[in-house]
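Protein modeling request. Please complete all fields; requests missing the sequence field cannot be processed.
Requester role: graduate student
Desired output: 3D structure, token encoding
Chains: 1
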Amino acid sequence: MPMPCQKGGTGYICAKNKYINWKNYAELLWIWLVNQREIMSKVKLSVIIISYNTCDMTLECIESLLNETDLEGVEVIVLDNNSEDGSVEAIGEKFPKVNLIASENNLGFAEGNNYCAKIAKGEYLLLLNPDTVTLDKAVDKLLSFSLDYPQAG
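Delivered output (153 residues):
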């Protein structure tokens, strides 16, 4: 957070070594926050897949997910735990719109999911194992039920 300017007096802050009127800064900050909220509100579901040396299964998992899911309002995040089987290259080449994170270390399943959950934009999270094949619009049905019955937990 910018610190109050010593020379600017009240109503001014220092930002990148410039004096900015506090009201202008607050207005810009508000616009930025509203934009971020709009971006985040458009994503209803973040699907998180953690991969480690499961290239073929992960490719099949992503392909079935994309084919069997209405992707409006859905983001897919794949974290690869430093695989040595070409997973990162194959996923990046075949699914360029997937948010692919190539970890330099094997974070493990739990830490990998926690990392992805922190950057996820969705209102809901789905942790999907890479050996999962999505069938019969299952993710759409799950999200629809969650939206229709929020008290279900």
